[in-house]
Amino acid sequence: MSEILQRVLFVNGVPVDKGGVESAIMEVYRGVDHKRLLIDFAVRKPQKGYFHDEIESYGGRVFNLFEHTKHKGNKKWNFSMDIYSVISLYKLLKNKGPFCAVHIAHPILDGFVIIAAKLAGIPVRIAHSNYVEVEDKNGPNLRRKLTRKLRLLFCKRLATHLWGCSAAAMEFQFGKDSRDIRREVVPCPVNLKKFMSSSLNKEEACKELGISMNKINFLCVGRYVKQKNQLFLVECFAEMTKIRADLQLILVGSGPLDNEIRRHAREYGIENQLIMLDARTYIPLALAASDFFILPSISEGLGIALLEAQASGILCFASDACQPESNMGLIEYLPLEKGAQYWANYILYQVENESTSERQIDKKHLVKFETSYVVPRMQHVYLTGDKYSII
Protein backbone atom coordinates (compact mmCIF):
# COMPACT_ATOMS: atom_id res chain seq x y z
CA MET A 1 0.00 0.00 0.00
CA SER A 2 1.41 3.41 -0.99
CA GLU A 3 1.89 6.09 1.65
CA ILE A 4 -0.51 9.02 1.80
CA LEU A 5 0.97 12.18 0.33
CA GLN A 6 1.37 14.81 3.07
CA ARG A 7 1.60 18.60 2.77
CA VAL A 8 3.51 21.21 4.78
CA LEU A 9 2.56 24.88 4.71
CA PHE A 10 5.46 27.33 4.82
CA VAL A 11 4.42 30.79 5.99
CA ASN A 12 7.02 32.98 4.34
CA GLY A 13 5.29 36.37 4.34
CA VAL A 14 6.87 37.84 1.22
CA PRO A 15 6.83 36.12 -2.21
CA VAL A 16 9.42 33.35 -2.41
CA ASP A 17 12.22 35.30 -4.05
CA LYS A 18 16.02 35.32 -4.08
CA GLY A 19 17.41 35.57 -0.56
CA GLY A 20 19.19 33.50 2.07
CA VAL A 21 16.10 32.25 3.89
CA GLU A 22 14.17 31.62 0.68
CA SER A 23 17.12 29.78 -0.90
CA ALA A 24 17.35 27.55 2.18
CA ILE A 25 13.61 26.86 2.00
CA MET A 26 13.98 25.81 -1.63
CA GLU A 27 16.83 23.48 -0.70
CA VAL A 28 14.38 21.82 1.67
CA TYR A 29 11.80 21.50 -1.12
CA ARG A 30 14.29 20.08 -3.62
CA GLY A 31 15.53 17.55 -1.09
CA VAL A 32 12.28 16.10 0.31
CA ASP A 33 10.71 12.95 -1.08
CA HIS A 34 8.02 14.41 -3.35
CA LYS A 35 6.12 11.12 -3.28
CA ARG A 36 5.65 11.54 0.46
CA LEU A 37 5.69 15.29 1.05
CA LEU A 38 4.83 18.48 -0.81
CA ILE A 39 5.30 22.03 0.42
CA ASP A 40 2.84 24.87 -0.12
CA PHE A 41 3.50 28.53 0.67
CA ALA A 42 1.41 31.23 2.31
CA VAL A 43 2.51 34.77 1.42
CA ARG A 44 0.97 38.20 1.92
CA LYS A 45 1.84 39.89 -1.37
CA PRO A 46 0.46 39.23 -4.88
CA GLN A 47 3.78 39.55 -6.71
CA LYS A 48 5.27 36.45 -8.31
CA GLY A 49 8.56 35.43 -6.71
CA TYR A 50 11.68 34.03 -8.37
CA PHE A 51 10.99 30.46 -7.16
CA HIS A 52 7.23 30.28 -7.77
CA ASP A 53 7.48 28.36 -11.05
CA GLU A 54 9.82 25.83 -9.46
CA ILE A 55 7.46 25.40 -6.49
CA GLU A 56 4.55 24.67 -8.81
CA SER A 57 6.65 22.24 -10.88
CA TYR A 58 6.92 20.00 -7.80
CA GLY A 59 3.18 20.18 -7.19
CA GLY A 60 3.36 22.95 -4.59
CA ARG A 61 0.95 25.86 -4.37
CA VAL A 62 1.45 29.53 -3.45
CA PHE A 63 -1.43 31.20 -1.60
CA ASN A 64 -1.73 34.94 -1.03
CA LEU A 65 -3.47 35.44 2.31
CA PHE A 66 -4.90 38.73 1.02
CA GLU A 67 -6.10 37.42 -2.34
CA HIS A 68 -9.73 38.30 -1.59
CA THR A 69 -9.07 41.91 -0.59
CA LYS A 70 -8.93 44.94 -2.87
CA HIS A 71 -5.32 45.75 -1.99
CA LYS A 72 -4.13 42.12 -2.30
CA GLY A 73 -1.57 42.86 0.42
CA ASN A 74 -0.02 45.87 -1.33
CA LYS A 75 -0.55 48.40 1.44
CA LYS A 76 1.20 49.58 4.58
CA TRP A 77 0.94 46.91 7.25
CA ASN A 78 -1.36 47.51 10.21
CA PHE A 79 -2.74 45.47 13.09
CA SER A 80 -6.04 44.77 11.30
CA MET A 81 -4.00 42.96 8.63
CA ASP A 82 -2.50 40.77 11.35
CA ILE A 83 -6.03 39.79 12.41
CA TYR A 84 -7.11 39.22 8.81
CA SER A 85 -4.06 37.02 8.14
CA VAL A 86 -4.99 34.75 11.06
CA ILE A 87 -8.54 34.34 9.76
CA SER A 88 -7.34 33.85 6.19
CA LEU A 89 -4.75 31.23 7.17
CA TYR A 90 -7.29 29.33 9.25
CA LYS A 91 -9.61 29.12 6.22
CA LEU A 92 -6.70 28.05 4.03
CA LEU A 93 -5.72 25.27 6.43
CA LYS A 94 -9.29 23.97 6.64
CA ASN A 95 -10.14 24.27 2.94
CA LYS A 96 -6.87 23.45 1.16
CA GLY A 97 -5.49 20.77 3.46
CA PRO A 98 -4.98 18.53 5.17
CA PHE A 99 -1.57 19.76 6.30
CA CYS A 100 0.71 17.80 8.61
CA ALA A 101 2.81 20.84 9.59
CA VAL A 102 3.00 24.62 9.49
CA HIS A 103 6.47 26.16 9.34
CA ILE A 104 6.70 29.91 10.08
CA ALA A 105 9.90 31.36 8.62
CA HIS A 106 9.59 34.85 10.16
CA PRO A 107 7.90 34.58 13.58
CA ILE A 108 8.59 38.20 14.51
CA LEU A 109 6.63 39.31 11.42
CA ASP A 110 4.08 36.50 10.95
CA GLY A 111 3.86 35.01 14.44
CA PHE A 112 0.13 35.59 14.97
CA VAL A 113 -0.76 33.01 12.32
CA ILE A 114 0.33 30.24 14.68
CA ILE A 115 -3.04 30.86 16.36
CA ALA A 116 -4.72 29.68 13.14
CA ALA A 117 -2.49 26.61 13.00
CA LYS A 118 -3.38 25.69 16.59
CA LEU A 119 -7.14 26.24 16.05
CA ALA A 120 -7.02 24.20 12.83
CA GLY A 121 -5.48 21.28 14.72
CA ILE A 122 -2.16 21.20 12.85
CA PRO A 123 -0.04 18.70 14.83
CA VAL A 124 3.42 20.14 13.99
CA ARG A 125 3.81 23.90 14.39
CA ILE A 126 7.35 25.23 13.83
CA ALA A 127 8.44 28.79 14.59
CA HIS A 128 11.86 29.32 13.02
CA SER A 129 14.16 32.28 13.79
CA ASN A 130 16.56 33.08 10.95
CA TYR A 131 18.03 36.46 11.93
CA VAL A 132 19.28 38.51 14.85
CA GLU A 133 17.95 41.92 13.90
CA VAL A 134 14.95 43.48 12.16
CA GLU A 135 15.77 46.47 10.01
CA ASP A 136 13.48 49.48 10.45
CA LYS A 137 13.99 52.52 8.25
CA ASN A 138 12.95 54.97 10.96
CA GLY A 139 13.41 52.76 13.99
CA PRO A 140 10.63 50.71 15.62
CA ASN A 141 7.88 52.70 17.33
CA LEU A 142 6.23 51.56 20.56
CA ARG A 143 3.23 49.98 18.81
CA ARG A 144 5.48 47.99 16.46
CA LYS A 145 7.63 46.80 19.36
CA LEU A 146 4.60 45.61 21.33
CA THR A 147 3.10 43.91 18.27
CA ARG A 148 6.32 42.02 17.60
CA LYS A 149 6.54 40.92 21.23
CA LEU A 150 2.98 39.64 21.05
CA ARG A 151 3.71 37.68 17.87
CA LEU A 152 6.67 36.00 19.52
CA LEU A 153 4.72 35.38 22.72
CA PHE A 154 2.06 33.45 20.81
CA CYS A 155 4.76 31.47 19.00
CA LYS A 156 6.43 30.56 22.29
CA ARG A 157 3.08 29.51 23.73
CA LEU A 158 1.64 27.59 20.77
CA ALA A 159 4.59 26.21 18.76
CA THR A 160 5.50 22.55 19.06
CA HIS A 161 9.03 23.32 17.84
CA LEU A 162 11.15 26.47 18.33
CA TRP A 163 14.04 26.52 15.87
CA GLY A 164 16.94 28.90 15.30
CA CYS A 165 19.53 28.83 12.50
CA SER A 166 22.09 29.79 15.16
CA ALA A 167 22.20 30.22 18.92
CA ALA A 168 22.06 34.00 18.51
CA ALA A 169 19.04 33.81 16.19
CA MET A 170 17.30 31.56 18.69
CA GLU A 171 17.97 33.97 21.55
CA PHE A 172 16.91 37.05 19.53
CA GLN A 173 13.35 35.83 18.97
CA PHE A 174 12.78 33.22 21.67
CA GLY A 175 14.93 34.34 24.60
CA LYS A 176 17.38 32.36 26.73
CA ASP A 177 15.19 29.69 28.36
CA SER A 178 17.48 26.67 27.97
CA ARG A 179 14.99 24.49 29.90
CA ASP A 180 12.47 24.61 27.03
CA ILE A 181 12.86 21.25 25.28
CA ARG A 182 11.23 22.59 22.12
CA ARG A 183 14.26 24.78 21.40
CA GLU A 184 16.80 23.52 18.85
CA VAL A 185 19.46 25.02 16.64
CA VAL A 186 18.64 23.52 13.25
CA PRO A 187 21.17 24.11 10.44
CA CYS A 188 20.08 25.80 7.23
CA PRO A 189 20.40 23.25 4.41
CA VAL A 190 22.95 24.24 1.77
CA ASN A 191 23.84 22.25 -1.34
CA LEU A 192 27.53 22.35 -0.52
CA LYS A 193 28.43 19.49 -2.85
CA LYS A 194 28.04 21.71 -5.90
CA PHE A 195 30.62 24.09 -4.41
CA MET A 196 33.04 21.40 -3.29
CA SER A 197 32.89 19.48 -6.57
CA SER A 198 33.13 22.45 -8.93
CA SER A 199 35.64 21.73 -11.70
CA LEU A 200 35.86 25.37 -12.80
CA ASN A 201 39.20 27.16 -12.53
CA LYS A 202 39.73 30.88 -12.20
CA GLU A 203 40.65 31.43 -15.85
CA GLU A 204 37.53 29.68 -17.15
CA ALA A 205 35.24 31.35 -14.64
CA CYS A 206 36.60 34.84 -15.31
CA LYS A 207 36.29 34.32 -19.04
CA GLU A 208 32.66 33.24 -18.72
CA LEU A 209 31.84 36.21 -16.49
CA GLY A 210 33.78 38.64 -18.67
CA ILE A 211 36.12 39.86 -15.93
CA SER A 212 39.89 40.05 -15.57
CA MET A 213 41.71 37.02 -14.20
CA ASN A 214 44.97 38.90 -13.77
CA LYS A 215 43.83 40.67 -10.63
CA ILE A 216 43.17 39.56 -7.07
CA ASN A 217 39.41 39.20 -6.97
CA PHE A 218 37.41 39.84 -3.81
CA LEU A 219 33.80 38.64 -3.82
CA CYS A 220 30.75 39.61 -1.75
CA VAL A 221 27.36 37.95 -2.24
CA GLY A 222 24.27 39.46 -0.65
CA ARG A 223 21.29 41.74 -1.13
CA TYR A 224 22.08 45.42 -1.49
CA VAL A 225 20.62 46.47 1.84
CA LYS A 226 21.95 48.23 4.93
CA GLN A 227 22.40 44.97 6.83
CA LYS A 228 24.91 43.57 4.32
CA ASN A 229 27.00 46.75 4.60
CA GLN A 230 28.28 47.04 1.02
CA LEU A 231 28.84 50.79 1.47
CA PHE A 232 31.43 50.04 4.15
CA LEU A 233 32.93 47.40 1.87
CA VAL A 234 33.38 49.95 -0.93
CA GLU A 235 35.14 52.27 1.52
CA CYS A 236 37.34 49.42 2.74
CA PHE A 237 38.20 48.37 -0.81
CA ALA A 238 39.10 51.96 -1.71
CA GLU A 239 41.62 51.92 1.16
CA MET A 240 43.02 48.63 -0.17
CA THR A 241 43.54 50.09 -3.64
CA LYS A 242 45.72 52.82 -2.14
CA ILE A 243 48.16 50.07 -1.20
CA ARG A 244 47.78 47.74 -4.19
CA ALA A 245 46.41 48.47 -7.65
CA ASP A 246 45.94 44.86 -8.81
CA LEU A 247 42.63 44.36 -6.97
CA GLN A 248 39.07 43.88 -8.14
CA LEU A 249 35.82 43.86 -6.14
CA ILE A 250 32.94 41.70 -7.35
CA LEU A 251 29.46 42.11 -5.92
CA VAL A 252 26.60 39.69 -6.63
CA GLY A 253 23.11 40.74 -5.63
CA SER A 254 20.32 43.24 -6.05
CA GLY A 255 18.38 45.59 -3.83
CA PRO A 256 17.43 49.15 -2.96
CA LEU A 257 21.02 50.34 -2.38
CA ASP A 258 22.20 49.47 -5.91
CA ASN A 259 22.50 53.07 -7.12
CA GLU A 260 23.96 54.27 -3.83
CA ILE A 261 26.70 51.62 -4.00
CA ARG A 262 27.59 52.72 -7.54
CA ARG A 263 27.62 56.37 -6.47
CA HIS A 264 29.79 55.52 -3.47
CA ALA A 265 32.28 53.74 -5.75
CA ARG A 266 32.48 56.81 -8.03
CA GLU A 267 33.08 59.09 -5.06
CA TYR A 268 35.99 56.89 -3.93
CA GLY A 269 37.32 56.60 -7.48
CA ILE A 270 37.09 52.80 -7.71
CA GLU A 271 34.22 52.47 -10.21
CA ASN A 272 36.59 50.82 -12.73
CA GLN A 273 37.60 48.20 -10.16
CA LEU A 274 34.05 47.37 -9.08
CA ILE A 275 32.02 44.75 -10.92
CA MET A 276 28.36 44.31 -9.97
CA LEU A 277 26.91 41.05 -11.27
CA ASP A 278 23.24 40.14 -11.54
CA ALA A 279 21.64 38.40 -8.54
CA ARG A 280 20.91 35.41 -10.79
CA THR A 281 24.64 34.81 -11.38
CA TYR A 282 25.60 31.19 -10.71
CA ILE A 283 27.38 31.49 -7.35
CA PRO A 284 29.82 28.56 -7.81
CA LEU A 285 30.98 30.35 -10.99
CA ALA A 286 31.48 33.66 -9.14
CA LEU A 287 33.39 31.86 -6.37
CA ALA A 288 35.59 30.08 -8.91
CA ALA A 289 36.53 33.48 -10.35
CA SER A 290 37.43 34.83 -6.90
CA ASP A 291 40.44 34.62 -4.63
CA PHE A 292 38.90 35.86 -1.38
CA PHE A 293 35.45 36.47 0.09
CA ILE A 294 34.37 39.44 2.22
CA LEU A 295 31.17 39.75 4.27
CA PRO A 296 31.12 42.90 6.46
CA SER A 297 27.51 42.46 7.62
CA ILE A 298 26.06 44.57 10.40
CA SER A 299 24.10 41.49 11.49
CA GLU A 300 23.78 37.87 10.32
CA GLY A 301 21.51 35.12 11.55
CA LEU A 302 24.02 32.61 10.20
CA GLY A 303 25.83 33.55 6.98
CA ILE A 304 25.02 30.98 4.28
CA ALA A 305 27.29 32.77 1.79
CA LEU A 306 30.22 32.08 4.13
CA LEU A 307 29.44 28.37 4.10
CA GLU A 308 29.39 28.34 0.31
CA ALA A 309 32.68 30.23 0.06
CA GLN A 310 34.45 27.92 2.49
CA ALA A 311 33.11 24.85 0.72
CA SER A 312 34.82 26.30 -2.37
CA GLY A 313 38.07 26.53 -0.39
CA ILE A 314 38.13 30.34 -0.27
CA LEU A 315 39.45 32.31 2.71
CA CYS A 316 36.76 34.62 4.11
CA PHE A 317 36.94 37.93 5.94
CA ALA A 318 33.76 38.56 7.93
CA SER A 319 32.54 41.00 10.52
CA ASP A 320 32.32 39.69 14.06
CA ALA A 321 28.55 40.13 13.74
CA CYS A 322 28.55 36.91 11.70
CA GLN A 323 27.77 33.82 13.74
CA PRO A 324 30.43 31.26 14.78
CA GLU A 325 28.26 28.33 13.62
CA SER A 326 29.21 29.13 10.02
CA ASN A 327 32.97 28.90 10.65
CA MET A 328 34.46 25.77 9.14
CA GLY A 329 38.05 26.95 9.53
CA LEU A 330 38.39 29.50 6.73
CA ILE A 331 36.95 32.64 8.34
CA GLU A 332 38.87 35.60 9.75
CA TYR A 333 36.58 37.75 11.93
CA LEU A 334 37.12 41.51 12.10
CA PRO A 335 35.32 44.10 14.26
CA LEU A 336 33.44 46.75 12.28
CA GLU A 337 34.24 49.42 14.86
CA LYS A 338 37.92 49.23 13.86
CA GLY A 339 37.00 50.98 10.62
CA ALA A 340 37.73 50.63 6.91
CA GLN A 341 41.47 51.36 7.07
CA TYR A 342 42.04 48.66 9.70
CA TRP A 343 40.09 46.18 7.57
CA ALA A 344 42.09 47.10 4.48
CA ASN A 345 45.46 46.70 6.21
CA TYR A 346 44.49 43.44 7.91
CA ILE A 347 43.06 41.84 4.77
CA LEU A 348 46.05 42.77 2.60
CA TYR A 349 48.46 41.48 5.25
CA GLN A 350 46.64 38.14 5.23
CA VAL A 351 46.55 38.09 1.42
CA GLU A 352 50.29 38.60 1.22
CA ASN A 353 51.41 36.41 4.12
CA GLU A 354 49.05 33.47 4.54
CA SER A 355 48.40 30.35 2.49
CA THR A 356 44.82 29.07 2.47
CA SER A 357 46.11 25.58 1.67
CA GLU A 358 47.62 25.40 5.17
CA ARG A 359 44.17 25.71 6.75
CA GLN A 360 41.92 22.73 7.29
CA ILE A 361 38.16 22.69 6.72
CA ASP A 362 36.20 21.03 9.51
CA LYS A 363 34.40 18.41 7.42
CA LYS A 364 32.44 17.03 10.39
CA HIS A 365 31.01 20.49 10.93
CA LEU A 366 30.49 20.98 7.21
CA VAL A 367 28.30 17.90 6.74
CA LYS A 368 25.77 19.20 9.27
CA PHE A 369 24.74 21.86 6.74
CA GLU A 370 24.68 19.64 3.65
CA THR A 371 21.22 19.34 2.10
CA SER A 372 21.40 15.55 1.93
CA TYR A 373 21.99 15.43 5.71
CA VAL A 374 19.60 18.16 6.90
CA VAL A 375 16.53 17.70 4.70
CA PRO A 376 15.68 14.05 5.52
CA ARG A 377 15.75 15.00 9.21
CA MET A 378 13.48 17.98 8.64
CA GLN A 379 11.13 15.79 6.61
CA HIS A 380 10.99 13.33 9.51
CA VAL A 381 10.03 16.17 11.88
CA TYR A 382 7.24 17.31 9.55
CA LEU A 383 5.81 13.80 9.28
CA THR A 384 6.21 12.61 12.89
CA GLY A 385 6.66 15.66 15.14
CA ASP A 386 9.90 14.25 16.58
CA LYS A 387 12.73 16.56 17.64
CA TYR A 388 15.31 17.24 14.95
CA SER A 389 18.21 16.34 17.24
CA ILE A 390 17.07 12.80 18.07
CA ILE A 391 16.95 11.60 14.46
From TrEMBL:
Domain Glycosyl transferase family: 202-325
Coiled-coil positions: none
InterPro entries, per the entry: Glyco_trans_1, Glycosyltransferase_grp1
Matches recorded under Pfam families: Glycos_transf_1
Identification of the protein by name: Glycosyltransferase EpsF
Species this protein is from: Paenibacillus vini
Gene giving rise to this polypeptide: epsF
